[in-house]
Amino acid sequence: MSIEDVIKKSFLESFGGTNSTTGIVTMIIALVVALVFGLLICLIYNKFYRGVVYNRSFAITLVGMSVMTAMVTLAISTNIVISLGMVGALSIVRYRTAIKEPLNLLYLFWAITTGITCGAQMYVLAVIAGVIMLILLVFFNRKSNSGHLYIVVVHYNDDASADTVRRAMGNIKYRIKSTAVRGQNTELAMEVYVPNANMAFVEKLRDAEGVLDVSAIQYNGEYHS
Predict the structure, then answer these.
(1) 147-224: CATH homologous superfamily?
(2) CA quadruple 48, 49, 51, 52: dihedral sign
């Protein structure tokens, strides 16, 4: 059978109404399973989210992306004509939404690949990949809970206070990121690793002689207040 015969047969099947009840049931099952997986990914995103403002629209996008990707996979896996048309249609689509948080990209790609595997009816693969992803998130989330990074900004009014600031830090690990001098005042920015959320060093810095004010900002790749 030549490629022309395959395309012709596929074309006739597309518009000849040959869809059986079994095929419809299979499609419904695939879409429902994709929906369930999408909801689970959404719940995991909600559980492990560490930002300030929870992005509800992104969570809904994860669910919809799983279902829509499963639908596309079902369409292109059952018919050559539709697959060629779908590829041509999707190739002209351009998405301009910027994803600032790298971890959100991980969730989005997880939803897309889950939809593909559900559309291909590879449910066991989707389950195995989901379990591995969950273990990965739990492991790194537990590790990150042992301590946090902060950007600490200290303003003091004389050079002698710099030594006082260093002594007030004690055994806390820190790295000086920048130093800015404005008139008689100096601004010192430090990257500080704080184990077990122990913020007692902030009080020591505030009470240090010559220190005007202290600001501590949690840092996870972008600023959080």
Answers:
(1) Ribosomal protein S6/Translation elongation factor EF1B (3.30.70.60)
(2) negative
